[in-house]
């Protein structure tokens, strides 16, 4: 009897010991979970009721815990209250309570971005509780050991603007080891919109205060840059690393010109960027939607961290699109486009140099009215210029528009960039995304012998009735406001034509 009882008692003891050990493990696990570093998810250019990719990116967030930030252009095409409630709310809207948004230019198609500010409420402009239109839209907060700044690229952001002055004061008051900023329009981009020189004052303020990461949208693609200084030069020790994540759901863009510090690019995959924010560094990982495979991941230290030098990315995949990758869908036009010698291709962007005019009284901006969705990056052919001097070299080579007697900017869409140059180092870039005209005035038209420009637009994004036309370029004389040159897209019957009209000397 006694012999038999001893094993029973021993077994009981072992079971109790294992139960005690299991309880201890579970308790330790719970403590670890509470102290995990915070995670931030980001994407821009998100919802449109005519597309499905926004629902796919929202599903990524469904299975992830963390803070969500938006990088502008939240509800296409115009940021109306109806589009926020009908398109954004059923998808990304289910994560609204943990979202800290920023606005984009499409959100401002409604006066004062009233749809955006009304939908997000105080989360979009916490400095002005109850504001629903023409609000500041910039603010900051802390996430773990990181200081986070959300900016508004659609209002005044020049060096002396209230926003940039607030930014400098905010960063000075929060000298965290690691800092991140996000807003819509990128200072540097290899995409169709290109580098936005209007954001220079913001980038300078961020660089001067040791910001580590900047997140942007606007160009519908994914691009990661090496750390750069205020002039866009490589600066591994103190530079800012920029991510463009315009992959929230809108149609994807191409890469006309690759910038020197661009490390990874992808324009056939939708997804969300995941950042894990450690006390002295961060991990990044691009999460693709279901059915797509591209990813990009790595880890590095913050520039202010007193630790070892920057760690190289743990994995930098080959992201050059191949024919086997999932292409960007092309919107279906109302009428089938029938190619003819005078027609515009329906899938491949075109580069159209304007004809030589002698003399030409009106400058020709480089236009990008409608982004062109494409599955494969293309190299933009550069027209071979004649020996004539560069047009407007008195101002463009200085890198700004200060030499012009008059100019109109549409929310900063008129700029001087290197990517727009056909001759020389700089050119004027105009990005059109609405029906507002933007231009500069040439006071000495007879000093130039030719005008060069190139255009990108997507005919599949247009709905035109028979005999309607879409004006791509108008050129006027300054003295009489007489139209002397016009480039139009015209629909005749069931085909589209590109037509150029020029007024001769005898009218």
Backbone structural class? alpha/beta
Q: Give the integer mean of the pLDDT values.
A: 76
Helix tally equals 7
Provide the helix percentage: 10-25%
End-to-end Cα distance, whole Å, is: 123 Å
Strand order of the largest sheet: 4-5-6-7-9-8-10
Give the overall shape.
globular
Please state the CA-atom Rg, rounded to the nearest Å.
27 Å
What's the count of strands? 19
Residue windows where pLDDT falls under 50 for at least 5 positions: 1-34, 307-391
Strand content: 15-25%
Query: What order do the SSEs take from the amino end to the carboxyl end, as H and E?
Result: HEHEHEHEEHEHEEEEEEEEHEEEEE
Largest sheet: 7 strands, mixed
Task: Explain the layout of strands and helices.
Blueprint: H1 2-34, E1 39-43, H2 53-62, E2 67-70, H3 81-88, E3 99-100, H4 114-120, E4 139-143, E5 146-150, H5 162-173, E6 178-182, H6 200-208, E7 213-216, E8 222-225, E9 241-245, E10 262-266, E11 271-278, E12 281-288, E13 297-301, E14 366-367, H7 393-396, E15 414-417, E16 427-430, E17 469-476, E18 483-492, E19 495-502
Parallel strand pairs: 1-2, 2-3, 5-6, 6-7, 7-9, 14-16
Antiparallel strand pairs: 1-11, 4-5, 8-9, 8-10, 11-12, 12-13, 15-16, 17-18, 18-19
Notes on the structure:
- Helix 3 crosses helix 4 and helix 5 (162-173) runs parallel beside helix 6 (200-208).
- Helix content is 16%, strand content 20%.
- It has seven helices and 19 strands.
- Strand 11 and strand 12 (281-288) form a beta hairpin.
- Strands 4-5-6-7-9-8-10 form a seven-stranded mixed beta sheet, with helices on one face. The protein has a six-stranded mixed beta sheet with strand order 3-2-1-11-12-13, with helices on one face.
- The protein has 507 residues and is an alpha/beta fold.
- Residues 1-34 and 307-391 have low confidence and may be disordered.
């Amino acid at each position: 009897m006694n012999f038999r009882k001893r094993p029973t008692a021993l077994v009981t003891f072992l079971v109790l010991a294992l139960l005690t050990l299991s309880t201890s493990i579970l308790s330790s696990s719970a403590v670890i979970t509470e102290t995990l570093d915070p995670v931030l998810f980001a994407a821009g250019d998100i919802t449109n009721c005519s597309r499905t990719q926004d629902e796919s990116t929202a599903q990524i967030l469904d299975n992830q815990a963390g803070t969500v930030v938006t990088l502008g252009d939240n509800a296409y095409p115009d940021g109306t209250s109806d589009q926020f409630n009908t398109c954004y709310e059923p998808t990304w809207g289910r994560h609204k309570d943990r979202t800290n948004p920023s606005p984009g230019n499409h959100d401002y198609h409604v006066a004062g971005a009233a749809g955006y500010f009304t939908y997000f409420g105080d989360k979009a402009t916490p400095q002005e509780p109850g504001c629903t239109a023409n609000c500041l839209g910039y603010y900051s907060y802390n996430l773990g050991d990181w200081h986070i700044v959300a900016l508004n690229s659609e209002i005044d952001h020049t060096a002396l603007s209230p926003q940039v002055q607030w930014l400098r004061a905010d960063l000075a008051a929060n000298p965290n080891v690691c800092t991140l900023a996000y807003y819509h329009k990128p200072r540097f981009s290899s995409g169709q919109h290109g580098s936005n020189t209007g954001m220079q004052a913001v980038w300078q303020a961020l660089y001067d205060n040791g910001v580590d990461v900047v997140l942007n949208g606007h160009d519908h693609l994914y691009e990661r840059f090496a750390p750069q200084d205020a002039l866009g030069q490589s600066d591994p020790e103190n530079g800012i690393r920029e991510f463009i994540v315009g992959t929230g759901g809108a149609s994807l863009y191409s890469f006309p010109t690759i910038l020197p510090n661009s490390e990874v690019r992808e324009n056939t995959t939708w997804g969300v960027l995941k950042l894990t924010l450690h006390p002295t560094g961060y991990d990044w990982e691009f999460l693709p939607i279901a059915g797509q495979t591209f990813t990009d991941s790595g880890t590095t230290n913050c520039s202010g961290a007193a630790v070892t030098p920057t760690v190289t990315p743990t994995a930098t995949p080959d992201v050059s699109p191949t024919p086997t990758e999932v292409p960007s869908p092309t919107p279906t036009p109302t009428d089938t486009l029938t190619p003819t010698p005078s027609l515009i291709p329906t899938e491949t962007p075109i580069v159209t140099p304007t004809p030589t005019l002698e003399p030409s009284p009106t400058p020709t901006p480089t236009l990008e009215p409608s982004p062109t969705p494409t599955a494969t990056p293309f190299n933009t052919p550069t027209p071979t210029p004649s020996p004539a001097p560069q047009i407007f070299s008195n101002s463009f080579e200085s890198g700004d528009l200060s030499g012009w007697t008059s100019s109109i900017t549409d929310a900063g869409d008129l700029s001087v960039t290197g990517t727009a140059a056909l001759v020389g180092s700089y050119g004027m870039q105009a990005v059109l995304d609405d029906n507002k005209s933007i231009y500069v005035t040439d006071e000495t038209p007879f000093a130039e012998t030719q005008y060069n420009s190139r255009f990108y637009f997507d005919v599949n994004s247009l709905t035109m009735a028979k005999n309607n036309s879409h004006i791509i370029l108008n050129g006027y004389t300054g003295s009489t406001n007489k139209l002397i040159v016009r480039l139009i897209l015209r629909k005749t019957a069931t085909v589209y034509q590109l037509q150029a009209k020029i007024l001769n000397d005898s009218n």
